[in-house]
Specification:
By secondary structure, the chain is mainly beta. 0% of the residues lie in helices and 48% in strands. Strand 8 and strand 9 form a beta hairpin.
Amino acid sequence: IMGGEFSIKSSDDGISSGAHIVIKDGKFSIQKSDKCITAIGNISIEGGEFTLSPTAIKSGTESGSGHGITVKKASSGKRIGNVAISGGSINITNCYEGIQGVNIDISGGTIIISSLDDALNASSGSSASGFGGRPGFPAQNPDGQSGVNGLSISGGFLMAAAQGDGLDSNG
């Protein structure tokens, strides 16, 4: 998406892709969605103004719906895509999880998140993606592979009000 103005009200996903999403600019208002912006592949936001208001629902102690920007799980049951934000103004309110992907890289922009669970969640989505792991010892998934979830913040402004973890990269 190179630009434009979008006002979306949806009971399912606001902007959704079975591949990747790249947003360079635009003005976006997305309300009442399960997932406001979602893709199976990578999501890249380079600029624009975003007001994202999903309908947050907490079910039980470990799950919920109502996500701002999230990578969907692939047919394998795991997330495979990353989220990169290098610019723009993003305001996510009333969400369960704010921004979610295997890796999250924030190098610019202004991000404000109010969430019922994690504001930022770097996770593959498998229950064992943060399995094990102590200082000096990398996390191991049950198949013996090192955990690869990562959260990198090198620029921009982030304000997170979370009832769960503000910044979560342990799965």
